[in-house]
Design brief:
Elements lengths: L1 H18 L4 E6 L3 E2 L4 E7 L3 E3 L6 E4 L6 E4 L8 E3 L5 E6 L12 E11 L7 E10 L8 E4 L8 E7 L7 E7 L6 E4 L2 E3 L5 H8 L6 E2 L2 E3 L5 E7 L10 E10 L2 E4 L3 E4 L2
Parallel strand pairs: 2-10
Antiparallel strand pairs: 1-3, 3-8, 4-7, 4-9, 5-6, 5-9, 9-10, 11-12, 12-18, 13-17, 13-19, 14-15, 16-18, 19-20, 19-21
């Protein structure tokens, strides 16, 4: 029995390490952010890389192609070099629009640009998702992590959806959040439909993804986890997660979260 469990994990580890590729990795905090909050972004990379600017370039509402609500002003022309184990922790967005007013509650994507260190290739866009919540009012489904994203250990996930007790859910993972998928004119799933996304949906009960499909409890809560392989090339890579809760009103989405693998 143990052999049948270990072999798929080893195979997955080899595939994951080979296909994660060069990645810019980001974490936004807080996420979700109460309306009017300052949002801090930590950036790292799975390879030696550099950022175009030390600032968020602009912020899009609803999706990476949604309307721009904020554009960077003067920014320090600092060459920021990042890499595995070398994060940059000083990128911010005020949570305000161009008129210095708090943005409305909803999903936002912060754009930055990066490329491999000393590369002559063009700069590549990277979008960082963050949900802005009302200070008071409706309580939206919340996704958080219960442990750190570290190679060779499980990454724990927790869903809190008090308005959706005993309700079906589907969790998913992806490497990036640069495109996502429009589920309706007003609802956008942040996860890119890469091979990790399809694998997490296809194998929700192990050996890598655990409890990625099920039903919330009487309080609207549930937990899940992902076993992160102990592969050196995953240092500094990004994982993204989001959960869809299917109730009588359709699909309700948690906030998307991204984590940097340490």
């Amino acid at each position: 029995m143990k052999r049948r469990i270990i072999l798929p994990i080893l195979a997955f580890a080899l595939i994951l390490g080979a296909h994660a590729g060069a990645q810019l990795s980001t974490e936004a905090s807080p996420n979700p952010a109460p309306q009017g909050s300052m949002i801090t972004v930590t950036l790292e990379s799975s390879i030696p890389a550099e950022l175009k600017l030390a600032c968020v370039l602009d912020v899009h509402a609803g999706s990476p192609t949604g309307p721009v609500v904020w554009v960077v002003g003067p920014c320090i022309m600092l060459r920021v070099i990042i890499g595995p184990g070398a994060p940059y922790k000083n990128m911010f967005w005020s949570g305000k629009d161009q008129n210095n007013k708090n943005v409305a509650p909803g999903l936002y994507f912060l754009r930055t640009q990066w490329k491999a260190l000393n590369s002559t290739n063009p700069w590549t866009d990277h979008f960082i998702p963050v949900r802005v919540d009302p200070v008071s009012g409706p309580v939206y489904p919340l996704l958080t992590t219960t442990s750190a994203a570290k190679r060779g250990t499980p990454l724990g996930l927790k869903v809190e959806a008090p308005s959706q007790p005993n309700t079906s859910y589907v969790a998913a993972a992806a490497f990036t959040t640069n495109t996502g998928l429009a589920l309706s004119p007003t609802r956008h799933m942040a996860l890119d439909l890469d091979w990790l996304f399809w694998l997490s949906v296809a194998t929700p009960y192990g050996p890598v993804f655990n409890n990625f499909l099920g039903t919330t409890d009487a309080f609207g809560n549930t937990t899940a986890s992902m076993n992160i392989p102990n592969v050196a090339s995953l240092q500094g890579a990004q994982l993204a997660f989001q959960v869809a809760i299917i109730d009588a009103f359709g699909i309700q989405l948690t906030n998307p979260i991204t984590r940097i693998i340490g």
